[in-house]
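Design request, tokens follow.
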């Protein structure tokens, strides 16, 4: 099964980081392509996108300052199918991508994604203010709930957490306008 290409660039506000692509995403070549995944709806309902996008438009979000990558590139049915070796290599590759592209925010789509990357056990939703230091200097770390349809948290609660990220990006954008 094919890997899903990253959508990364310099000057992004947010890079969304998932565990790895689903088989459906691997087949279609686009991020969050499983129809049971709520990612695109969450982005729109939280205000992060001006309209509801579909997975085939994932590359278009670069124009909005939003990028995509995963800690592991290989599509699997679930995160439990990812090996320790893949996580180790993925951590190193992800850190290199964040150091190269330096987004304002690295948004980890799921607590498990962040704990695998950071090796930290204490994780709350939102910005990781309690973390002693960001793992990549100058890149703020934000942990959001997984958008998988398997998540038990009510969708409105998930959207509310993503709205914190929207509020931050709005505050950043308005600050840039005033300069």
């Amino acid at each position: 099964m094919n890997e899903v290409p990253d959508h990364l660039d310099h000057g992004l506000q947010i890079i969304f980081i998932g565990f790895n692509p689903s088989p459906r995403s691997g087949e279609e070549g686009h991020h969050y392509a499983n129809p049971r995944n709520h990612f695109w709806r969450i982005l729109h309902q939280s205000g992060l996108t001006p309209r509801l996008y579909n997975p085939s438009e994932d590359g278009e979000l670069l124009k909005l300052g939003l990028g995509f990558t995963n800690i592991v590139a290989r599509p699997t049915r679930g995160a439990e199918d990812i090996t320790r070796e893949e996580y180790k290599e993925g951590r190193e590759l992800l850190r290199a991508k964040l150091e190269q592209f330096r987004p304002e925010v690295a948004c980890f789509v799921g607590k498990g994604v962040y704990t695998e990357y950071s090796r930290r056990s204490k994780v709350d939703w939102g910005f990781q203010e309690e973390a002693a230091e960001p793992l990549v200097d100058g890149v703020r770390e934000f942990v959001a709930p997984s958008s998988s349809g398997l998540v038990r948290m009510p969708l409105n609660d998930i959207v509310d957490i993503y709205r914190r990220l929207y509020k931050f990006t709005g505050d950043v954008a308005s600050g840039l306008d005033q300069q």
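Comment from the thread starter after seeing the answer: thanks! The CA atoms of residues 121 and 131 lie 11 Å apart.
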